[in-house]
Amino acid sequence: VGKSSVLPCSLKSNAAMVTWKISPRVGSPCTLVYRADQNKTDRINCHDSVNWKSRPDQDLALEIRHVEITHEGSYTCDVVGTDGNFHKMYNLTVLVPPRLILSCDYYGNPMCEAATGKPAAQISWVPESISTPKEEGHDNGTVTILSKFTAHRTNVINKTCIVSHPAGNQSKSIVC
């Protein structure tokens, strides 16, 4: 989320026509077309953040600027050229790193929250906790995980929450 993504198409330089077909999981389809004989491009129902990486007569790649969850979906590039037709397909999945929130509840127990991540994060504790994390799904496809530190040994003062996620791992420590 928030970064740019470039989807390469074909390395063929003799493309007569190139079509990018974008089918997002949510929302309307979008099409980008380039015709070499007219050196003309058309955009049909495309968001401003989705466009050619540069000029399509030089580079057929598609660039998505400031990637959002709404960009998830199928991206297909079709190239018609003198060497034949070429087809390249991508399924774009957007990772959203969770926000790690560590606090103490009313009873002085550490609580760790991995807020609004996609996919859901995994929470673990040092020292080890016997708690069962609770999961809350959100309408935008993100998930919040909440874990309360529970252990047999209570003599450990400093507790560390570790959040594991494909977009990166995080950890924080707290004394309640």
From TrEMBL:
GO terms for cellular component: external side of plasma membrane. SUPFAM superfamilies: Immunoglobulin. One of its GO terms (biological process) is regulation of neuroinflammatory response. Residues 1-93, 102-175 form the Ig-like domain. The keyword Disulfide bond applies. InterPro entries: CD200R, CD80_C2-set, Ig-like_dom, Ig-like_dom_sf, Ig-like_fold, Ig_V-set. It is a single-pass membrane protein. Pfam families: C2-set_2 (PF08205), V-set (PF07686). It is found in: Membrane. Its main location: membrane. GO terms for molecular function: signaling receptor activity. The keyword Glycoprotein applies. Keywords: Disulfide bond, Glycoprotein, Membrane, Receptor, Transmembrane, Transmembrane helix. It comes from the Eukaryota. Belongs to the CD200R family. This is MOR1A protein.
